[in-house]
Write a structure and sequence with these properties.
Blueprint (H helix, E strand, L loop, with lengths): L1 H20 L6 E6 L9 E8 L9 E6 L5 E7 L7 E4 L7 E10 L2 E11 L5 E4 L2 H5 L8 E4 L3 E2 L16 E3 L4 E7 L5 E2 L2 E4 L3 E12 L6 E3 L3 E4 L2 E4 L5 E8 L2 E6 L4 E5 L2 E4 L2 E16 L4 E5 L2 E4 L4 E16 L10 E6 L2 E4 L9 E16 L8 E8 L2 E4 L4 E13 L8 E8 L2 E4 L6 E14 L5 E4 L13 E10 L2 E2 L6 E2 L10 H9 L1
Parallel strand pairs: 8-9, 9-11, 10-12, 11-15, 12-15, 13-17, 14-18, 15-19, 15-20, 16-20, 17-21, 18-22, 19-23, 20-23, 21-24, 22-25, 23-26, 24-27, 25-28, 26-29, 27-30, 28-31, 29-32, 30-33, 31-34, 32-35, 33-36, 35-37, 37-39
Antiparallel strand pairs: 1-2, 2-5, 3-4, 3-6, 6-7, 37-38
Length: about 500
């Protein structure tokens, strides 16, 4: 009660302070709580400034105070443009806090506004069996704790989160195993759709989405992965996960999009400390949907951050387009050992770092099934690391194999084809320095049934903003219809000692 009174007095004090300064104040600040973000230990707010007369000319200060008025944290910003989303983690449950936003004017601190909140009660829900797990669909904001391993053999499985999950799931190092998913949804995965939720400390073993004999077939758009189909916001965290002996067999008739990977179909949040062992994605497309396919993540969006991942994966892709399914004739296919397509990062610093990759990419067939009436553009980008990436990356170790079978006869000159294969990425678009990227070894083998103009390189094919340095240890090989293409574009090194600056990668190198 005394603490509540203290906080109330603080609120009154700062309200008076704000009111006293209001005649001079021309700037307004408001707060908008992000839906589902207020939990027992975290909160996220959109901070909205209105300053049409440029009243704020000095730094902005945002302070977090506890219920006794003690300052817990202070953040300084040079401009209101630097402030949008405000996130606080590791808070105490059932505890009140005060946020103050202020600036300076003629040496005086002017409080612009304040916001008070109380974190929720820590109500952990314990998960013991398959029934408990599936019942999580009844509360998508809950805080869940896995209490033991669960074997889903014989259980008809549907992800409990086909709608947004905003809670937490703590696996405590236990294992979910023998899950079989036989039906496709927009978001496929053990945790289908994660918004501001957290998934951590969990092992997945022998998870199947479809089988070789009976693949999952979808005629609509899909974001599919073993773990999370769609990680939809920057407030989401996926960390300390192991995925072993798992597979996706997916056939799509969609004309819109297919995003698929082992960890996530599409990521907009934080992914870190993940190990993928002996896992596999097979995707067959029978139409002209946009394909973004990766060993880790199909599509990495601008707010996503990826750190410290070990991937041992295989990708098989097959395009056998059916003319009857096509309303237009444009194809966009992005495939990468890490990710098919990576958007520019919101942060200037690297947000893809510490990747240890062993991958095999097989394009089993690429058949556009041309018709005399075809027109449009066919873009296919296949990279050992990324199909296309528009941000910097660092501390990556890669061993990759790419097999590419082109078996489409172009009978129509009105169709433009841009088909490229690279040991690194077809397109890298960043001014920032890329560092400590080692293509330990790579091989590319192209088989052409029909004559085609395909660009193939051990280096980046399109890097319009800056030329970057990439390194190799064992070198690369390129074969096109059995004929070797020699290049000398990667910088050869003789030792890995001191090459990497990421502790995660260094430890893995030392283990080998």
């Amino acid at each position: 009660m005394k603490k509540f009174i203290k906080l109330t007095l603080l609120i009154i004090f700062f309200s008076v302070l704000i009111g006293c300064s209001s005649p001079k104040r021309k700037a307004e600040v408001s707060f908008e709580l992000v839906e589902g973000s207020l939990k027992n230990d975290t909160i996220a707010l959109n901070v909205i400034f209105s300053d049409p007369d440029n009243y704020i000319s000095e730094k902005i200060y945002i302070k977090l105070l506890d219920q006794d008025g003690n300052e817990l944290e202070s953040r300084n910003y040079n401009s209101i443009d630097d402030i949008s989303l405000l996130v606080y983690n590791e808070l105490l449950s059932e505890t009140s806090y005060l946020i103050l936003v202020s600036t300076s004017l003629n040496g005086d601190e002017i409080v612009l506004n304040s916001y008070t909140f109380t974190t929720k009660k820590d109500l952990n829900i314990k998960i013991y069996d398959a029934e408990d797990f599936l019942q999580m669909s009844q509360d998508r904001n809950g805080n869940y704790i896995l209490m033991n391993d669960i074997d889903f053999s014989g259980v008809q499985f549907t992800s409990p989160f086909t709608s947004a999950f905003n809670g937490t799931f703590n696996g405590q190092g236990y294992t979910l195993k023998n899950i079989e998913m036989t039906t496709s949804y927009l978001y496929n995965g053990v945790f289908g759709y994660v918004a501001s939720g957290t998934i951590r400390d969990l092992k997945l073993e022998n998870i199947s989405i479809g089988t070789n004999e009976d693949p999952v077939i979808t005629s609509s758009s899909t974001k599919t992965a073993i773990l999370v189909g769609y990680q939809s916001t920057s407030l989401s965290t996926i960390e300390n996960i192991t995925i072993t002996s798992s597979q996706i067999y997916l056939e799509s008739l969609s004309q819109t999009f297919i995003y698929s990977g082992i960890i996530a179909g599409e990521s907009r949040g934080l992914i870190r400390d993940i190990e993928v062992i002996d896992s596999y994605v097979y995707l067959k497309s029978s139409s002209n949907a946009v394909v973004k396919l990766g060993g880790a993540v199909g599509y990495i969006n601008e707010s996503s951050e990826i750190y410290d991942i070990k991937i041992e994966s295989k990708i098989d892709f097959q395009l056998d387009s059916e003319i009857s399914n096509r309303d237009n004739h444009d194809f966009n296919i992005y495939i990468g050992g890490i990710s098919g397509d990576v958007e520019p990062a919101l942060k200037k610093s690297s947000s893809i770092s510490g990747i240890y990759l062993t991958s095999e990419i097989n394009v089993l067939s690429l058949n556009f099934n041309y018709d005399e009436t075809d027109y449009g553009t066919h873009t296919v980008l296949i990279g050992g690391l990324f199909g296309s990436i528009d941000r910097n990356f660092d501390n990556i170790y890669s061993v990759s194999e790419i097999e590419f079978n082109y078996n489409s006869e172009n009978k129509d000159n009105t169709v433009k084809e841009y088909i490229s294969v690279s040991a690194i990425a077809v397109s890298v678009n960043t001014y920032n320095e890329i560092s400590n990227v080692l293509i330990y070894s790579s091989s590319i083998n192209i088989q052409l049934t029909f004559e085609a103009d395909i660009e193939v390189s051990e280096y980046v094919i399109n890097s319009p903003l800056k030329r970057h340095e990439f390194f190799t240890f064992q070198g690369s090989s390129i074969l096109i219809d059995g004929i070797e293409k020699k290049e000398d574009l990667l910088i050869k090194i003789d030792s890995l000692d001191g090459f990497f600056t990421n502790d995660f990668i260094v430890q893995l190198i030392n283990l080998d």
